[in-house]
Amino acid sequence: MRRVLPGGAVERLKRRLPVPGGIPRALAFSPVQAQPAATGGYASVPARAGDKPDIFVLSIINWDFRIQRPQHLATRMAAEGHRVFYIEMEQNPREGTVREVAPGVHVVRLPNRGMRGLQSYTGVPTPSQARAWINHFHALADAIAASPVAHVVIEHPYWWNLARHLSPEYQITFDCMDDIGGFSNTEPHVLEAELDMIARADKMVVSSQYLFDKFSPIRDVVMVRNGTDVSHFIDDSQAQAPGWLTGKLKPGTIRVGYVGAIAEWFHTDLLEAVARANPDFDIHLCGAVTAEAPLRLGNLPNVTLHGEIPYGDVPAFHRQMDVLIIPFQLLPIIKACDPVKFYEYSAVMRPTVSTSLPELDRAGELVFRADDALAFAAQIRHAAPLARDADFGQRLRQYALDNAWSFRAADMLAEMRHEPKLSVIVLHYGADTDMTLATLHAMLGRGDVYPNLEVVLVDNGSTPEVLDILRARAAGDDRIVLVENGENLGFARGNNRGIEAATGEFVLLLNNDTFLAPGALLAMVRHLQRNPEVGIVGPMTNNIGNEARIEIAYADMDAMARAARDLATGHRGQWTPIPVCAYFCAMFRRADLDRLGHLPEIYGRGMFEDDDHCATFHQAGLVTALAEDAFCHHHLSATFNALPSGEKQQLFDRNRALFEERWGKWVPHRYRDSRPPASLPGAR
Question: The Glycosyltransferase 2-like domain covers which part of the protein (predicted)?
């Protein structure tokens, strides 16, 4: 059906067909939410305000499904000033649509052109489907004028075979909230995609200690647990029972409640034994039933299955209960779970009885644990009076307040922004400050293109008038450190003064006649972080005399950014060994510079420093690399072009002789005929 019908039509049809296992439709599905009409497509999205990067969430659930971690984090990240685009797996049969569901949060459905037949969660895209999705994603990004560097948060491995082709201006964070291998319907290829994403995503966040312990030996991982929407649950005026509970609450009983999925991990046997042995328990279970076994609980006189309930009714339902429960089997998928419901139960000041979930250990005596029916029932009886205990209730509420989603979103954003410090050395000489200021603007004036950036602006003996311009620019941005040499020290000595002043873990030498494409800084840092054999890395460019040059066309720097994105798409993480990195734009580890030496200063004003310095790195066993996912526009040797041709040739001949004395015969640089294959059809 999914090959011929839109996803929404499939879902509507499913609700009219018998449910496997004989589960009643009213219990198997969430209530159908009324979908607001699209507000004019992508053009309805307000322009970005401020410099904070946009965030694209590739979601694990539709927005209108049960409100969980994905929706809460999206809402809180938007509250921090980011535009958040929550992209659902379901697509539209015609144009893409967007609707604002909370301030700054836009739910997006991309078009399904070229994508039909790709099944959510389990589908593996064909190359042409991946190409179509990339085109749709780029169309969205262009239509909303996305930030030069943006974040992509992936919540399910389904997305990886699509998003892995994106260029590095889209920084990818895997938000791992489940041990998906524990789901009975997880197919092997989904687990393979997850492992590949774990290895290659820029960042990885996990929601529990279990997941942290599982994945931290593989890669760097940060734990951001679940939380609670405190404001939704602490309104004590929500005391009246929801209308659908009318007549269903039995007087003179201990009311026991549950809200959440009733799935394969639900401990049916345990709860059935508790209900049968304790007829004075009035047990109310709210949530879609997706497994057969829990259905038999509805046959018991003191158990009511309500199906899925609206999120707005959850606090009022909680308040009608004496005790709230988490009756889960201790399967791996549950051990990996940090239960949101415990935070929500605590916010309404109701005691929780649970099986021994590892993530609840840190709650200490605020939660009551039991793993057999007799003990579980005893804990319910013990906990029930505490529903009216003001002191215990305040302790529960404080626990919820300490674990608010706003804190979790702040932790998530901090990890997404976390990068090693990068020092960029920009050497200036001469009266023309326009190029230098444009070079600075590419890094500092277009938003947050690298979040931990230091620019060391080195002046090689400019006039007082020029120095005044450079000083004013440095004074206006605390990321700029101005080094005034007082004389023209030449290329190598001038850059070395900048290296000496730099404080970053990584150092980039950048000519003042360049304009970096978005994502280039992040791409080059990643190559040095992940490839210890690489000692120096540089970008592709429009204008240089070696393998880094590539044919590319654009009319201005905005068009350059789009052309550079197309150039990097399908090449994320790729690099190619080349003999020499041209030092118009070359990045190093600071530790390697300190160990192997800074630029050789024997070449005077310039030429051959890069050949010589790269030879030193080769001698130490390190590779010089071309980043296939980074681009830098280069006007080409603005300083040297000002020299008379005879003087330039004389300098070249002198410095070539010096190089050959040290390293043997110089091999002229050359262009290349082709690039490595892209991961995406149609990519360059």
Answer: 423-596
3-state secondary structure of 396: helix
Q: Give the 3-state secondary structure of residue 260.
A: coil
More confident residue, 640 or 461: 461
pLDDT band at residue 515 under the 50/70/90 scheme: very high
Which residue in 312, 206, 315 sits closest to 257, CA to CA?
A: 315
Instruction: Provide the residue range defining the domain that includes 385.
Output: 230-401
Kindly report the length of the chain. 684
Mean local confidence (pLDDT), 483-492 = 94
Helix (H) or strand (E) holding 58: strand 55-58
Structure-block tokens of residue 117: 């037949």
For the chain, the average pLDDT equals: 92
Pairing of the two strands 170-176 and 506-510? unpaired
The single residue listed with the structure tokens 């053009």 is: 43
User: What's the mean pLDDT in 104-110?
Assistant: 97
Within a domain: residue 40? no
The answer to whether position 47 is within a domain reads no
In degrees, rounded to 5, the angle at the alpha carbon of residue 679 between the alpha carbons of residues 678 and 684 is 30
How many domains, in total, are found in the chain?
3
Indicate the helix (H) or strand (E) that contains 352: strand 352-354
Q: pLDDT at position 32, please?
A: 45
Q: What angle do CA 480, 484, 489 make, to 5 degrees?
A: 120
- Please compute Rg for the chain using Cα positions: 30
Name the nearest CA neighbour of 640 among 595, 584, 557.
584
* Number of C-beta neighbours around residue 674 at 10 A: 5
Both structure tokens of 214: 């599982």
**What pLDDT, in 10s, does the model give residues 631-649?**
999 997 655 566 677 788 9
Write the CATH number for 293.
Answer: 3.40.50.2000
